[in-house]
Specification:
nine-stranded mixed beta sheet; 11 strands
Length: 179
């Protein structure tokens, strides 16, 4: 069964799994019918060390483990438009105040994320979070990937081969769990 793997910073993971954050804002949405499962990959944090960045050993520093730590069910996805008015005022449409609050972002943070730098409008997607489940033990990224039909020399075989993920997605990607 197809699902989604989403990369999320540790700060937001904590809010999702303690029930405070019940809407995740993204610039794109999967072509899956709701409800669908979202696996949560907790990112590692980069710490500025002078002129360079260093990935922190998150397991020791509790800043993000670089593993899949849990899942949630996305039971609904709604669209939000963001645009600048003629006088430069910022607008978000198709959105209730309660929904903004459930993202754990301010209206300005949400607008800036959806629109991006140097643009005047954009589309955001609100992924509604239900049934958050934290795994007892974080799972390796390699347990997630996709099954593909294998071609054997000159003929097509019905054998499906699992191709594990080797790096986390920038935002999200489709996945299956290794059987």
């Amino acid at each position: 069964m197809k699902a989604v793997l989403m990369s999320i910073h540790p700060k937001w993971c904590e809010k999702i799994f303690n029930g405070e954050k019940t809407i995740e804002v993204r610039k794109s949405v999967p072509k899956l019918e709701t409800p669908f499962t979202v696996y949560v990959y907790q990112t590692r944090l980069k710490v500025n060390k002078g002129d360079s960045f260093m990935v922190v050993d998150a397991l020791n520093e509790n800043l993000g483990c670089g593993k899949v730590i849990g899942s949630f069910v996305c039971d609904r996805v709604t669209c939000c438009q963001a645009y600048c008015g003629g006088s430069g005022e910022k607008h978000l449409t198709n959105l209730f105040w309660d929904e903004v609050k459930r993202t754990c972002l301010t209206e300005h943070e949400m607008f800036d994320y959806i629109v991006g730098k140097g643009k005047k409008e954009g589309t955001g997607w609100l992924w509604h979070i239900t049934e958050p489940k934290l795994f007892d033990k974080p799972r390796a990224l390699s347990e997630f990937g996709n099954y593909k039909t294998e071609w054997v020399q000159w003929y097509h075989s019905d054998d499906k081969v699992f191709y594990p993920l080797t790096r986390p997605p920038q935002s999200w990607c489709y996945v299956e769990v290794q059987k």
